[in-house]
Amino acid sequence: MAAAGAILVRTLELLEKKIRPGVTTADLDAAAERYIRSQGATPAFKGYRGFPGSICASPNSMVVHGIPGPYELSRGDIVSIDVGVVHDGWVADAARTFAVGAVSPVARKLLRTTEEALMAAVAQCRVGNHLGDVSHAVQAHVEAAGFSVIRSLVGHGIGRDMHEEPQIPNYGQAGRGPLLEPGMVLAVEPMVNAGRHAVRVGDDHWAIYSQDGSLAAHFEFTVAITEAGPRILTPWHLPAEARAAAAG
Question: Where does the chain show beta strands of DSSP type E?
């Protein structure tokens, strides 16, 4: 899974360099698919339950599951890019929300808060903790900043399949739920609205938007539970040198 995660991280790095005004989400999708296949891997999302894209590209008030297409990025947009990679039968899943040029203060705060919530959740991914500790960490950080965790969307276990047990809500009580054990791998993914938590499904039956039209952000890691602590298998937050050292 770490090998799949390494390909995924390089894919996100490639897309980050391409994100600019005038680029379409279809352009990003094509670049991601070319790169993933060039690495001897396959895009996990392509054809999954009928999804047509290799990535999910979700701008502004779209939370997740955006089908790549003709939408052109504009200065001031934010866009969430979710990528899945299958390598040797193992799946990795991660997401980042990017700013397209200068963005509003609310957008900057939303991105910072959601990424911080992910890191707070990862810190709870330790043997002997409960799943509720992970969920509560997200909720506490997000709500302290005045934003809303989306309650109808969850993270998940991951391994040979994209979605495995357990489900991982982004809200809950600390000390509750299943115990975390060595060998578990979780896709931890705060999904946050700047406004209220309610969402709606788009006309294409895939895209999910904030119901009130407020901006939304999505950050995700694939995290292994180990005796030595949480191991992030999709460490897009680290420079290349640090990732290599962690993998070694």
Answer: 42-43, 55-59, 62-64, 78-87, 90-99, 148-149, 155-157, 164-168, 185-188, 191-193, 199-201, 208-210, 216-218, 221-226, 229-232
